[in-house]
């Protein structure tokens, strides 16, 4: 296989620590499987604002376009919260997703058996959880017209607009149905069709698309009910498909099922290079202290090998090692409980590498 090339964007906060471990694990696993890849680091987010005044430099976008895959840590933090809205660190992620045409964000939520007792929910509620959240990533209120706060007729007001078009809904629901066909065949489409026009279009189009998949059963749920069902009966879900904002919120909620947001990976797929990142943010509260859980980023790297670098073998090897490291009792601070072995971010990376086989 020809050598693949990846771009690594550490970003801000814990981004540097977690991507360093994901890179080390990736290199060790690839070497074991005799898979070659090269990498380069690029800047985005607050780090790029500090270095060159913009959150997403042109050369970062270009390098990502040329690469086979992009691994990103996280961006943002209090240091850059006061900059102009168009220069916010988070704009880097939104810009990358748009520039690369990444409309589908896959966020798998599973519970490692070693961590079934870790969730604040009862083990019998979480132990059967295996959910794939398919979040629309290139549209909705994230990319609608926006009017920053201004005083109109003496009253300060701001505005964000939500728009979804038929093609945008069709492609994401189709992808969710395809994914479900290879799983348990159940799609729950989540919307707010009792209030929002975009949701009513979403529901209609979702039904039409799902009709093409005889092996897939689609049902609909309002987002407020879904938020409740995710903690009440999470084992009932297979694939959830939803819009940009609802998907963002529901996936952080679903992370609680697994035991920590630090465990959840994601893949953003679409027209261009795939982007892989943990679902969490830059966690400024724990940055630089060796407290961050790198497993979500390591599992994102595994997804990158599977979906963008053409190596299921490396992906499986990394995922098996993560499962084993947890079974062997290693825990970063976020999932630590007495009786287990507490490790730093870096030690967790080393323990994963020790279990690659
Ligand atoms: P966050 O996800 O960074 O942190 C929420 C909580 O989870 C914090 O208590 C944090 O310590 C903890 N946490 C997150 N990742 C962890 C890990 N790997 N290991 C252990 N604990 C972890 O969310 P936030 O505090 O709302 O946001 C912080 C910054 O990150 C903001 O600037 C936000 O805009 C940005 N953000 C970026 C991304 C991204 O780059 N994809 C995603 C979400 C938030
Ligand atoms: C995520 C983050 C981003 C989002 C922010 C940082 C723009 O919360 O990746 O989940 O809302 O999509
Ligand atoms: Mn989020």
UniProtKB/TrEMBL annotation:
Keywords per UniProt: Amino-acid biosynthesis, Branched-chain amino acid biosynthesis, Cytoplasm, Leucine biosynthesis, Magnesium, Manganese, Metal-binding, NAD, Oxidoreductase
Localization, UniProt: Cytoplasm
Major localization listed first in the record, in broad terms: cytoplasm
Reactions listed under catalytic activity: (2R,3S)-3-isopropylmalate + NAD(+) = 4-methyl-2-oxopentanoate + CO2 + NADH
The protein's name: 3-isopropylmalate dehydrogenase
Membrane-spanning intervals of the chain: none
Residue numbers binding substrate: 97, 107, 135, 224
Cofactor note: Binds 1 Mg(2+) or Mn(2+) ion per subunit.
């Amino acid at each position: 296989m020809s050598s693949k090339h990846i771009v690594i964007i550490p970003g801000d906060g814990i981004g540097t620590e977690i991507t360093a471990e994901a890179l080390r694990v990736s290199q060790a696993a690839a070497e074991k499987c005799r898979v070659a890849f090269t990498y380069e680091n690029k800047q985005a987010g607050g780090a790029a604002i500090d270095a060159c005044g913009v959150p997403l430099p042109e050369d970062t976008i270009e390098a990502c376009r040329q690469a086979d895959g992009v691994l990103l840590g996280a961006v943002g933090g209090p240091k850059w919260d006061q900059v102009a809205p168009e220069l916010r660190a988070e704009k880097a992620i939104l810009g990358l997703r748009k520039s690369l045409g990444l409309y589908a964000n896959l966020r798998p939520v599973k519970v490692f058996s070693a961590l079934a007792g870790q969730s604040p929910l009862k083990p019998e509620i979480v132990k059967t959880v295996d959910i794939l959240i398919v979040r629309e990533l290139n549209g909705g209120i994230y990319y609608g017209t926006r009017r920053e706060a201004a005083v109109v007729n003496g009253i300060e007001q701001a505005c964000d607009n939500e728009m979804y078009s038929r093609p945008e809904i069709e492609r994401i629901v189709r992808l969710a149905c395809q994914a479900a066909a290879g799983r348990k065949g159940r799609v729950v489409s989540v919307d707010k069709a009792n209030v929002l026009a975009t949701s009513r279009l979403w529901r209609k189009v979702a039904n039409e698309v799902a009709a093409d998949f005889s092996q897939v059963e689609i049902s609909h749920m309002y987002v407020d009910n879904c938020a409740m069902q995710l903690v009440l009966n999470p084992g009932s879900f297979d694939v959830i498909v939803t819009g940009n904002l609802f998907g963002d919120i529901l996936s952080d909620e679903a992370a609680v099922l697994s035991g920590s947001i630090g465990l959840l990976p994601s893949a953003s797929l679409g027209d261009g290079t795939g982007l892989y990142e943990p679902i969490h943010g830059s966690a400024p509260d724990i940055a630089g202290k060796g407290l961050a859980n790198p497993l979500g980023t390591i599992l994102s790297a595994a997804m990158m090998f599977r979906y963008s670098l053409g190596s299921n073998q490396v992906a499986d090897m990394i995922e098996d090692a993560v499962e084993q490291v947890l079974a062997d009792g290693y825990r970063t601070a976020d999932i630590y409980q007495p009786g287990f072995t507490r490790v730093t971010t870096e030690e967790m990376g080393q323990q994963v590498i020790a279990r690659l086989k």
